[in-house]
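Thread title: Can someone regenerate the structure for this chain?

I was given the following input by a collaborator and told the matching structure tokens would be attached. They weren't. Posting the sequence so someone can regenerate them.
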Amino acid sequence: MAEAGTAGIASVEKLMRHYSAHGVSFIRRDQEMGWGLRTTFLSYDYGDEPSLPKA
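Best answer:
Regenerated them for you:
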């Protein structure tokens, strides 16, 4: 429902608290750019595939 835009504000706030507790920061939109996300749990650039450890 959140992705479809039909969730209530309480549900959206609950999702935001959950994600924030797990390393996701929400970046407010400004006049040039829309909303965004920042993570602390990814160690590679967006779009790059992480290398798998060799067995």
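The helical segments are 9-21.
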